[in-house]
Amino acid sequence: MKTRILILGAGFGGLELSTTLSEAMGDSIEVTLIDKSDGFVFGFSKLDLMFGRKSETAIRHPYAAYAKPGVRLLREVVTGIDAAAKQVTTDKGVHQADILVLALGADYDVSGTPGITLGVNEFYSVSGAAHLAGVLPGFKGGDVVVGVCGAPYKCPPAPAECALMMHDYVKARGLEGVTRITLVNPLPSPVPPSPDTSKAILAAFSERGITFIPNSRVTSVEGKVVVLDNGTRLPCDLFMGVPKNRAADVVVAAGLTEGGWVPVDPYTLRTKFEGVYAVGDLANTGVPKAGVYAEGAARAVAANIISQLRGEEQTARNPGAGSCYIEFGANRIARVDVDFLSGPKPFGTYHGASEALRIDKEAFGTSRRARWFGALTGEIDG
Ligand SMILES: Cc1cc2nc3c(=O)[nH]c(=O)nc-3n(C[C@H](O)[C@H](O)[C@H](O)COP(=O)(O)OP(=O)(O)OC[C@H]3O[C@@H](n4cnc5c(N)ncnc54)[C@H](O)[C@@H]3O)c2cc1C
What pairs with residue 32 in β-bridges? Predict the structure, then answer.
């Protein structure tokens, strides 16, 4: 009988894991990949959508294009997980696995932040980014607050990117003189593991008159006022929020979380349940919640599953290292390479913003798209 590998979530982690397994094992194994959505969207594409650079159709990569030997991709909603039994319930039925991988990403929790509404004044969901794309053309200047409601959150540099891209946007519309942009972030600096990156971002903020409020989070939005955890009240005509991130309800209800996330061995991504792994944003590894790190974790899990199936030693380790591209505005992109797991402490190398790095970022997107979904058609996605 074929080994049944069940992967929950076809995002960065799930797509990379299933692709690697398929490449190595073909249809000698039975991989079932489950996702509730009809397509994959890169996190960074939400910024493109919000600022009108791309349409929602252009950024969504339909799962219908995903075809890998040995893998079935099912559109189902996971409603229950019994990790000990490796049994998963969905809206369509029950799946039994020999190996179970949780890759359901991070969900958003606005219940503790009055005034934040999913799909309205946040840009971390596709619907929120699409909604703000419709609001922006009506913006006539005033106070803009890019506000983070809690840490950890996906892609630590994304709020800074939003502030810099918003500056570009208001400048292009001739509203620079009548707009003030403020970024509120619970982190002490824009990219804590890389002081050089933080310094460059803060210099860019200073050149553009963007105010950065570190070590603070948004606790509520009350009409035209944004309230911070230290009691500060900021005037706000337009709020662009990052909602509090947490593991999905179904993962919490399954008793798999501690402190909101799934505890794992950061190097092997094993949970406390035999044969059950967690990769990507929902796992607590000490590595940031970003696609590039989810992908590295997925490759390590895939390599160890392949070794296990071949009766070989399982030696693969999560590298916890990756490159993040940072939109600096004015068509320039910077890159920071951060290694979280191989040294005594995280270490980052900064590559200054340039137009050339935009080509790198586009290649990052197109190479994943080609690897996961096959031949490329239509618009290049960045
Ligand atoms: C604005 C923004 C910018 C970003 N920029 C970058 C960047 O430049 N570089 C980078 O590396 N990362 C970036 N990220 C972060 C990146 O998108 C995530 O870290 C990455 O997608 C995490 O991968 P994952 O596999 O853990 O989860 P996801 O990719 O989120 O995949 C999880 C999947 O699980 C599915 N799912 C969830 N619940 C259920 C359920 N109950 N039933 C069935 N399916 C379910 C979802 O539909 C989803 O497809 C950005 C994120 C945002 C929001």
Answer: 6, 72
Ligand 1 pocket: which of 42, 60, 242 to mutate (most atoms within 8 A of CB): 42
Q: What is the pLDDT of residue 49?
A: 98
CB of 306 closer than 6 A to ligand 1? no
Per-residue model confidence as pLDDT tens digits over 218-263: 999 999 999 999 999 999 999 999 999 999 999 999 999 999 999 9
Closest-lying ligand 1 atom to the alpha carbon of residue 124: 53
Which tokens go with 79?
């409603």
CB of 73 closer than 8 Å to CB of 40:
no
Taking only the tens place, the pLDDT of each residue in 46-96 is 999 999 999 999 999 999 999 999 999 999 999 999 999 999 999 999 999
pLDDT category at 379 given cuts 50, 70, 90 is very low
Distance from the alpha carbon of residue 128 to the mean position of ligand 1, in angstroms: 15
Tell me how far apart the alpha carbons of residues 304 and 271 are, in angstroms, rounded to a whole number: 14
- The overall average pLDDT reported for the chain is 96
State whether residue 208 is helix, strand or coil: helix
Q: Give 274 Cα–ligand 1 centroid separation in angstroms.
A: 25
Q: CB of 154 closer than 6 A to ligand 1?
A: yes
3-state secondary structure 43-74: CCHHHHHHCCCCCHHHHCEEHHHCCCCCEEEE
Helix, strand, coil share (%) of the chain residues, nearest 5 = 30, 30, 40
Residue bearing the CA closest to ligand 1, atom 2 = 43
Between CA 215 and CA 152 the distance in angstroms is 13
Ligand 1 center to 56 CA (angstroms): 16
Task: Calculate how far, in angstroms, residue 171's C-alpha sits from the geometric centre of ligand 1.
Answer: 31
From first CA to last CA, the distance across the chain in angstroms is 42
Give the position, in ligand 1's atom list, of the atom nearest the Cα of 46: 1
Q: What residue has token string 């039925």?
A: 93
